[in-house]
Write a structure and sequence with these properties.
The chain has about 240 residues and is of the alpha/beta class. Helix content is about 40%, strand content about 15%. One of its GO terms (cellular component) is plasma membrane.
């Protein structure tokens, strides 16, 4: 219920201020389990991604969003609960298995589960290599995957910017469902998982128009930060 209350409050405000747009909404089935696999450009994705869908969209978010203290922590919990986020531990290992079980439970209830295969927001607006968890979940739960591309949210609110820019219309595109039934029963095969994931990322690349980079987003962020530090060290000092 809280999800729909938050959506009812946000929709008129966001529509009036930002004039968001959507394409391919009819590609998302009105009932039954489905995975939305999306690019992740901005914090604004949480606001605009599911805005046009008549179904509740549940996403898996890091548990840190729900463990903060004080007023800020309370606001964070309220917001992420309101946009349909379920807390998970994303530290890897056994935590990854727990996330998989949570995802399967949500899909087993016939719901819509949103996943960002890149694992983190893009730091430069490009599309990065997808992690295979989305493929494993799709094969184990035996559900279709719909590419879900955000457009203009990076330009509107890039990482590190606290407030969105006005005058930029954010959009969302929903692609045709991807059927991976030919791979059912092969979810332990790493080559199959990579093939499925790459097919999803290729569909996202075509849908979003982003440049694709064949490396993980987290590694690219580390490399970019290291390059920035080295560049700063090389600058002449100002007296």
């Amino acid at each position: 219920m809280f999800y729909w209350v938050v959506k009812a409050i946000l929709w008129p405000f966001l529509h009036f201020v930002f004039r968001p747009w959507a394409e391919g909404v009819d590609n998302v089935p009105r009932k039954g389990p489905v995975i939305l696999a999306g690019n992740h450009l901005s914090f604004a994705d949480h606001f605009f991604g599911a805005l046009f869908l008549p179904r509740k969209v549940i996403s898996l978010g890091k548990s840190d969003y729900f463990t903060g203290r004080g007023i800020k922590g309370a606001l964070s919990r309220a917001f992420f609960s309101g946009v349909g986020t379920v807390p998970i531990d994303r530290s890897g290992g056994k935590a990854s298995e727990a996330a998989l079980r949570t995802g399967k439970r949500i899909l087993g209830e016939g719901q819509v589960l949103a996943i960002y295969p890149e694992g983190t927001r893009s730091h430069d607006g490009r599309l990065y290599k997808g992690k295979t968890g989305v493929a494993r979940l799709a094969l184990e739960a035996r559900v279709p995957v719909i590419p879900w591309a955000m457009v203009n949210t990076f330009e509107m609110m890039p990482p590190g910017r606290p407030l969105p820019k006005l005058g930029i219309r954010p959009g969302v595109k929903f692609g045709k469902p991807l059927d991976f039934s030919r791979y059912y029963g092969m979810e332990e095969d790493r080559l199959v998982l990579r093939a499925v994931t790459d097919e999803i990322m290729y569909a996202l690349m075509e849908l979003s128009g982003q440049e694709y980079v064949d490396k993980y987003a987290a590694s690219a962020k580390v490399e970019a930060a290291r390059a920035a530090r080295e560049a700063a060290k090389g600058k002449p000092r100002r007296d």
